[in-house]
Amino acid sequence: MSAQTETPHHADTTDAPITYCIDPLWTPYEAIRNGSHVGISADYMQIVAELTGLTFQLVPTESWQQSLEYVQAGKCQMISMLNVSDYRKQFLDFSIPYFAAPNILVAREGTPILQGYAGIGNRLVGIVKGYRQIEYIRRYYPDVRLKLIRSEREGLAQLARGEFDVMVGSLLSVNTHLNNQQINNLNIVGYAEPFDSLSFGVRKSFSHLIPILNEAINQIPESKRVEIYRQWNNVKVRYHKDYFKLTVTLLFIIFVILTLVWRHRTLHTHGRLMGQKNAEIESLQTSLLDRNRTLEFLSAHDTLTGLYNRNHMIQKSEEEIYRFRRFHTVPSMIIVELYQGIDPRLDNHDAHKKQYLKALASVCLATVREVDVVSRYTEGQIVVLCPQTNLDEGQILADRLLSAIDKNTELADMQMVASIGLAQLKEGENFSDWIERATKALYQAKRQRANRVAVAD
After folding, report:
1. What single string gives the DSSP state of each residue in 275-321?
2. What is the pTM for the complete model shown?
């Protein structure tokens, strides 16, 4: 893919094309077809090119693992669509996420519903070589047995043949391959966390591109994002022919023709009308499912910062409270709020507030762990939910976040002061009690009028 538009603000970045690699077999997220980059990431890169004046030049590869090797070796300068991971942070810097989608577990018919990786047991799990999920599984579920595969398309065929028991895959990609390959003996049996939160990855020597990419991502209208999602969400219903029923029906029709010709005509007309109505109903059901998925995605995110919104944070917090009561895994909550150190009245200026909230969101996403959930909880507050994190571990994360905010040049130029409140969930607390204690700790930090972390009692 190549796109170039003259933009005065970024004129110095368009002198030479930026080489990039993709996952060539990850339809519909991205793929190489007849030497060209197609898919969701291709559409987003086209928009970014138009907004920034950057020129992108595809470096073809044969697999996702080869793409990762190419960017490490400097054969391409960026990756178009990938998740953040500790391993990848060693050689890449990341933009803010621009597309999110769930990961799923797929298995043969007859496999029960699996409660995530904890429910896999002794089953052999197939996963594409180089996927971020491998790091996650080896860190948090080291007993799960893995079989590395080349692509999701090949993995589904191997799964259908019984070469392993369960496959981890991306929802849109799995749906596409199941329909294209007409595989009928596989079912979705669970969700696989963490879900995909996909960004651009840039070699550290080209990290000056990150602010340019972030600015372009923030300018993409929500209507365009929905349009891209709808275009590539090509989930189709697969029909199964039942030849036994067809034979019985034909015999019955012959019998009716021999006995009552006029009734046959009536039934034929009635059947035709019913078929039309069923087709209309199926079309409406497919359309409704598509709209519901789009609305579900939009309802979970804040449009200004790209973070999760308040409702999503409350839902995830309730899940952690349930886990705490059942499994005694302690979570912690961090609340961050910024204010103008010199003139607090500037905090109410809309343009100024949008600027520092976006900067704060970027710092939080770049600092927290993969398992942490970052959301814009109120107009000026960002909440970080930290699963399986006690108070001491939460203190380390909060201090690291405060240090990252203090070192951020954009926030430093605006002379912003950060206040952070930290609270660990206690026995018998509900969500309201928990966040109230964290908020009190935040107000305690704000009274210091300096960069400060306060811990709730």
Report:
1. HHHHHHHHHHHHHHHHHHHHHHHHHTB-TTT-SB-HHHHHHHHHHHH
2. 0.47
